[in-house]
UniProtKB/TrEMBL annotation:
Gene3D superfamilies, per database record: Aspartate Aminotransferase, domain 1, Type I PLP-dependent aspartate aminotransferase-like (Major domain)
Sorted UniProt keywords: Acyltransferase, Biotin biosynthesis, Ligase, Pyridoxal phosphate, Transferase
Modified residues (N6-(pyridoxal phosphate)lysine): K239
Family that this chain belongs to: Belongs to the class-II pyridoxal-phosphate-dependent aminotransferase family. BioF subfamily.
MF-aspect GO terms: 8-amino-7-oxononanoate synthase activity; ligase activity; pyridoxal phosphate binding
InterPro entries according to UniProt: Aminotrans_II_pyridoxalP_BS, Aminotransferase_I/II_large, AON_synthase_class-II, AONS_Archaea/Firmicutes, AONS_Archaea/Proteobacteria, PyrdxlP-dep_Trfase, PyrdxlP-dep_Trfase_major, PyrdxlP-dep_Trfase_small
Residue ranges of every copy of the Aminotransferase class I/classII large domain listed in the record: 40-380
Any one GO BP annotation for this protein: biotin biosynthetic process
Function: Catalyzes the decarboxylative condensation of pimeloyl-[acyl-carrier protein] and L-alanine to produce 8-amino-7-oxononanoate (AON), [acyl-carrier protein], and carbon dioxide.
NCBIfam families noted in UniProt: bioF, gly_Cac_T_rel, PRK06939.1
Stated name of the protein: 8-amino-7-ketopelargonate synthase
């Protein structure tokens, strides 16, 4: 069909530059190893931190819920798509998060959009870390509020932004709890202190901390003992929780308001019963099987130390996300391709996901790995890194 030649041109250019990346289908479940093109590879690219995507309790909960309540809900939450299990799960999640209320949305992405687009007006300003996730950036694009960007985790830059915005009605400071491409944790205690000093609201996107940091995986707010001092926590159910969805943990008023004003909540169908039941079971697993989080952190320490010893630049990560920074975009993809040859699935990540010149292979270990598998992965990294003159 004619009409999109200008797009084809751009795609051809990407192919010539080696930056075109086709989708890679996985032919197995999301385990420590996955099957791709018929070959078993060590999975180092998923966000399945605790291995919950394949946890027998979650699978059983999903199957039972589908059997009893059907495959879908047939409506948005506000019309006919709220099942009792949706409300029950939100109450359970609020108790888990030590907040007054929660509201679950289709994804973490839409949760950020709902909050940022609906809680602020043109009398307000949102103050955002420059490396915040794309869903925050897009949420900010949707708000009528003014915008101010501060330098990445730079408290001086944040304070300047707070000082220069004192005339706005409300100021909302937004930060990722854990930054998804570098794995560093935001200096939340200091950010909260600054927000309290300048009477600003604070919102944390805890996508990569949910199920990873804090007691039983309650997130960065709990990790830093800041319960009750952060106005809005956005979490995801799609990564460590192992299923799908995003949530806002805040006050009852915020929940009620978003039910009426949050457009992704209002205009998109609710989660199927299997999703909600599996998420609910996942919270029980977090509470009852803390050894999964311990295993995740043990694997993280082991793998990070191995990569550093080999001489890779692994940035400043404090979490299971460990970037192997290569710099050049084509080289990052070459490293990823070589690793695949040697039995490891670790995707290359480049602009616009990370800044130009900071292309990398991002690795994430999970609780499913063990030292034998991680040693295999390190051997592959050593071979590929030496062949490409990275180490
Ligand atoms: N926030 C951050 C920091 C993320 O890394 C992601 C996922 N890439 C999201 C939000 C979106 O979460 P979800 O995948 O549930 O839409």
């Amino acid at each position: 069909m004619k009409g999109f030649e200008y797009i084809e041109e751009e795609l051809n250019q990407m192919k010539a530059e080696g930056t075109f990346r086709p989708l890679i289908p996985i032919e197995s479940d999301q385990g420590a190893k996955v099957t791709i093109e018929g070959k078993e590879l060590i999975q180092l690219s998923s966000n399945n931190y605790l291995g919950l995507t394949t946890h027998p309790r979650l699978k059983l909960a999903a199957v039972r819920a589908a059997d009893e309540y059907g495959a879908g809900t047939g409506s948005v939450r506000t019309i006919a798509g709220t099942f009792s299990m949706h409300n029950d799960f939100e109450e359970k999640l609020a108790e888990f998060k030590h907040t007054e209320a929660t509201l679950v949305l289709q994804s973490g992405f839409t949760a950020n959009q709902a909050v940022l687009a609906s809680l602020l007006t043109k009398e307000d300003v949102v103050i955002s870390d420059e490396l915040n996730h794309a869903s925050i950036i897009d949420g900010i694009r949707l708000t009528k509020a003014a915008r101010k960007i501060y330098k990445h985790v730079d408290l001086k830059s944040l304070e300047e932004a707070l000082q220069s915005t004192q005339d706005y009605r409300k100021r909302l400071v937004v930060t990722d709890g854990v930054f998804s491409m570098d794995g560093n944790i935001a200096p939340l205690p200091e950010i909260v202190e600054l927000c309290e000093k300048y009477d600003a609201l604070i919102m944390v996107d805890d996508a990569h901390a949910s199920g990873v940091l804090g007691r039983n995986g309650r997130g960065t707010v709990d990790h830093f003992d800041l319960n009750g001092r952060v106005h809005i926590q956005v979490g995801t159910l799609s990564k460590a929780v192992g299923v799908l969805g995003g949530y806002i943990a805040s006050t009852q008023a915020v929940r009620d308001y978003l039910i009426h004003k949050g457009r992704p909540f209002l205009f998109s169908t609710s989660h199927p019963p299997a999703v909600t039941a599996a998420c609910s079971e996942a919270v029980d697993v977090l509470l009852e099987e803390p050894e999964l989080i311990e295993q995740l952190w043990e694997n993280t320490r082991y793998f990070k130390a191995g990569l550093t010893k080999l001489g890779f630049d692994t940035g400043h990560s404090d979490t299971p996300i460990t970037p192997v920074i290569v710099g050049d975009e084509a080289k990052a993809h070459q490293l990823s391709d070589k690793l695949k040859e040697y039995g490891v699935f670790a995707q290359g990540i480049a602009f616009p996901t990370v800044a130009k010149g900071l292309a990398r292979v991002r690795t994430i270990v999970t609780a499913q790995h063990n030292q034998t598998i991680l040693d295999e992965a390190l051997t592959a990294f050593e071979k590929a890194g030496k062949e490409l003159n990275i180490i």
